[in-house]
Specification:
Helix 3 links the parallel strand 2 and strand 3. An 11-stranded mixed β-sheet has the order 1-9-18-17-16-15-14-13-10-11-12. Strands 4-3-2-5-6-7-8 form a 7-stranded parallel β-sheet. Helices cover 41% and strands 15% of the residues. With 506 residues, the chain is α/β, with parallel strands linked by helices.
Length: 506
């Protein structure tokens, strides 16, 4: 699914108005109706509702919403920051002023702020996607007051004070802190970033009938990975296929005390469907791997506790390396030498990334990643690679630049794991949950992506499908358990894969 900037969202509205065709006031009516349908399904009448409106089209949405809720037995009061505004705002203001009894109050100073009880639902329709500067004056004061109230807070399209695009919050920036956000047509890019997503609460995406033609024709570097997207990426297994059809993956990692990481990535790789998996580990882990994952093959390093050598990769279709490997000096030296000669699709994770960060610092101009390379850092690992970022927006910018500069796919793990590609495209993952924040979860992802590479998927497709399968497996696991360990995610990979091939969505 494409994600659009605030400028393209504005163009999307304009395109729909011109080509559908539909009057802008009627499009606003559709948006308000979609909001009210969702609202009334979750918050049954009778309820006290205070609707706070700015003077733009977001405020116009709020006025239409207030009118519709009043017609459905909600006790509605409207509060305005201004009595003048956009054409559609003024038309909806006239409509609601003709209704009785829907009180409309103007807020111009602190003494105009209303009393709000704990049983009040607050609807924030102050500012939408067009906001380009922080709130100030009475609007900032009002938002701070609403945030401090005991009412239940709902935002129309997006929380007021937040920017729609990938922009960092400025110091002391005031943003409406919503319990729920009813956003129109698609999530906004800022919903995917840690510092701004926290203001959205539960997000409901509402179809308001914007033109599908515009969405298909308009270019954007931003995408949301959905169930339908991944279903299209995956190829079904064929009747006369065999283990050789689905690739042979080499998985290198583990050290004394960290053999679990090698186990997790090996088991997850096989669960994801690669035909053959060979784990390359220190000798101390031989019995562990052969016992815990009897379906895998095992090669051991000459060293007992660490990896001091790395194998020839010519007989493998793809490589995954890093989890549990450690940062021993001989490991670093051997890895640096070996990486220069890898000519297979490869996933670098964990200590492999930390070694690369050190090599980048020491050999900044000469260091190169292999072709067809995927990096899977968490934020701290990425900061070691690309420099410390002050916020998620800055880190995303660096991620895109890093992927383009080094011609690699960068999978930055988080609540909405992002996949940045060498062509500048960014994919936000829509699956997964907070229960997956557990030791070993990233090792599972490495195995999943490596398995897809071994099966012949491109680096971009393996990364996109891999992060979604990983998150979806975690979602299935979380339905059955209050807390997760990484092995729980592995056990749900077959269910996640089957749901993608059968289109069985939770």
């Amino acid at each position: 699914m494409k994600l659009f900037t605030s400028l393209n969202i504005k163009k999307w509205d304009e395109y729909t108005i011109r080509h559908k065709p539909i009057a802008s006031i009627d499009l606003m009516e559709q948006a308000a109706n979609a909001f009210v349908q969702q609202f009334t399904s979750l918050h049954k009448a009778p309820q006290v509702v205070h609707v706070f409106c700015g003077k733009g089209n977001n405020g116009g949405d709020g006025l239409a919403i207030a009118r519709m809720l009043a017609a459905q037995s909600y006790t509605v009061t409207v509060y305005l920051l201004s009595e003048s505004g956009s054409t559609d705002f003024k038309q909806n203001l006239t409509r609601i002023q003709q209704l009785q009894p829907v009180p409309v109050h103007l807020i111009t100073q602190e003494s105009d702020l209303p009393q709000i009880s704990s049983n009040t639902i607050i609807v924030d329709a102050l500012f939408g996607t067009g906001l380009t500067r922080p709130l100030s004056g009475i609007s900032a004061l009002l938002v701070q007051y609403l945030n401090a109230s005991a009412g239940f807070r709902i935002s129309v399209d997006m929380p007021s004070g937040m920017f729609a695009d990938c922009m960092p919050l400025l110091s002391q920036q005031v943003v409406f802190n919503a319990h729920e956000t009813y956003t129109f047509q698609q999530p906004k890019i800022s919903f995917m970033l840690a510092e701004t997503a926290k203001f959205c609460g539960t997000i409901h995406v509402l179809d308001i009938g914007l033109s599908a033609d515009f969405s298909e024709e308009c270019d954007t570097p931003y995408f949301l990975i959905t169930h339908a997207d991944v279903r299209k990426l995956l190829s079904p297994r064929t009747l006369f296929s065999h283990k050789g059809t689905y690739g042979h993956l080499l998985l290198a990692g583990g050290s004394f005390g960290k053999m679990g990481a090698a186990y997790l990535m090996t088991k997850s790789a096989l669960r994801t469907g690669c035909g053959l998996a060979t784990a390359y580990i220190p000798k101390t882990g031989y019995t562990i791997l052969q016992t815990a994952v009897p379906e895998s093959m095992v090669m051991t390093d000459e060293e007992l506790y660490e990896l001091h050598h790395f194998p020839d990769v010519r007989d493998f279709d793809a490589v995954a390396v890093g989890p549990g490997m450690g940062m021993h000096e001989k490991t670093i030296h051997a890895f640096e030498h070996w990486l220069r000669f890898v000519q297979k699709p490869i996933v670098l994770d964990a200590d492999a990334l930390n070694i690369c960060a050190r090599l980048l610092a020491e050999h900044h101009f000469s260091f190169r990643f292999p072709a067809n390379c995927i990096l899977t850092p968490h934020p701290k690992e990425f900061d070691r690679l690309a420099g410390v970022s002050l916020n998620a927006a800055e880190r995303l910018e660096k991620q895109v630049h890093f992927a383009q500069k080094y011609r690699v796919v960068v999978v930055l793990k988080g609540a909405y794991t992002t996949v940045a590609c060498p062509d500048g495209k960014v994919y936000f993952n829509s699956s997964g949950n907070a229960a997956m924040a557990t030791a070993g979860s990233g090792d599972v992802l490495t195995g999943i992506i490596g398995s897809l590479l071994a099966q012949g998927y491109s680096t971009e497709d393996a990364a996109r499908a891999g992060v979604y399968i990983h998150g979806l497996s975690g979602d299935w696991a979380a339905l059955q358990r209050n807390s997760l360990i990484a092995s729980d995610i592995i056990e749900e990979i077959p269910r996640a894969m089957k749901s993608l091939f059968t289109n069985d969505i939770q």
